[in-house]
Structure formats: structure tokens, C-alpha cells
Amino acid sequence: MEEFTTSFVTTSRYYVLGKRSPQITRIWFALHGYGQLARYFGQKFAPLVDERTLFVFPEGSHKFYLEDVRNHAHSRIGASWMTRENRLTEIENYCNYLTGIRKEITRGKNAKLGLFGFSQGCATAARWLASGGIEADRLVLWAGVFPKDIPPDKINKINATCVYGTEDPWLTSEQLEEIRIQYPACQLISFRGGHEIDPTTLPTVMAGN
Fold first, then answer.
1. pLDDT, tens digit, for every residue of 47-101?
2. DSSP per position, the chain
């Protein structure tokens, strides 16, 4: 069997918290984790919105039922950025999608850009940054690690922070040590908790310009 590819135009949604105005000086692009939807993920950032800050929440194009599909009328739905299947094409597709949003949001604005990734969104954010699709001056990876296919020099030039819960079952001490060695400029911040966004730690991490 021979494999082929095709290109086509598609439409994908994203969400925004904050008012798009000339007063905006900081725009955050926040990428959700596996099995999440952007409209619910974005609610965690609502307390951080002010007249100078805008939050943008893209959404992975892969949607699926999180529960029994036989009861799909009531099953919760989640999204994913990619799987290992057709990996390189999937990465290219979501980078193009994210770059399209960035161009649309920043048109006519002179604001600083920040990039936030949670869980699976960490690898997505790092790959997008490395692709050149966004020029951010801040990077926050929460409950995730840098993908191994990204050269450290692509990341070490930026103000990067990695946040993790001390009881997170998905992160190992070896992974955290690798961050310390490979990304010495990356600030590591921990909180008491698991694989989650801690509402007490979040404002501290996101503070400042």
C-alpha cells in the first residue's frame, strides 16, 4: 500500500481572555494539556487578566471522547495536540495553526509575547518556539519537560521557567535533573501538589513583564 498526503483549508477555534485594546502590553499564548479543552483550561487564568494583559488559548485539533463512546451524547470531550502517528506532519500542522493565531492576535500591536504550556502543551510550546513561529521573551512549562528533538540552545536564550508539583506522578527526578543540566538558565519552581496548575503558585510565576 502506498501512502500519499494532501493539503486542504480547515477552520479551528481559539479563545481569548481580556480586552483587545491599544493598552495591551503583554500577550500570553497558553497551550492546554492532553485531554483538555481550551475554554475550560483558560478559566484557570481568569484572575490574572487586567487592562494590559491578554491571554490566548489555542486548542489541539484532535478531539476525542474521554469516556464511554456508547454514551457519546453525554461523554466529556478532550483535545490533543498530536500522537506519534504521522508525527512530523502533525507538528508542522499545529505550528502553522499557532503561527496563524499569533499573526492574527498581534497584528497592529506592539506587545511582549509570553508562551505557557501545560503537560502535553509543554512540548507543543517548545517546538513552536524553536520553529520560529513566535518570538517570545518568556516561556513557562508547567508539569512537563522539553522535547528531546529541540536543541537546548534554542531555549537557553529565553527567560524560561519550569514549574512542577512535588507529587506529580508523570515527572521523574531524572527528568528534572536533565532540565537542570541541559537548560541551566531555566528557573525551576515547585509546589506541593500533583499534575495540576496550582492557583496559588500561578500568579507568582506569571507576574512581571
1. 999 999 999 999 999 999 998 777 777 789 999 999 999 999 999 999 999 999 9
2. -------------EEEES---TT--EEEEEE--TTB-HHHHGGGGGGG--TTEEEEEE--SEEEESS-GGGTTT--EEEES--STTHHHHHHHHHHHHHHHHHHHHTT---EEEEEEETHHHHHHHHHHHHTS---SEEEEES----TTS-GGGTTTSEEEEEEETT-TT--HHHHHHHHHH-TTSEEEEESSSSS--TTHHHHHH---
54 Rama class: left (phi>0) / alpha (psi -120 to 50) / beta: beta
Residue 139's identity, in one-letter code, is L
Let me know if 203 is exposed, middle or buried by CB neighbors in 10 A (0-12, 13-18, 19+).
Answer: exposed
d(CA 161, CA 190): 11
Written as nine digits, the cell of 60 is: 489541539
Cα(127)–Cα(198) distance, integer angstroms: 24
Domain boundaries, the chain: 14-206
The pTM is what? Answer: 0.95
CATH number attached to the domain at 14-206: 3.40.50.1820
Beta bridge partner(s), residue 58: 14
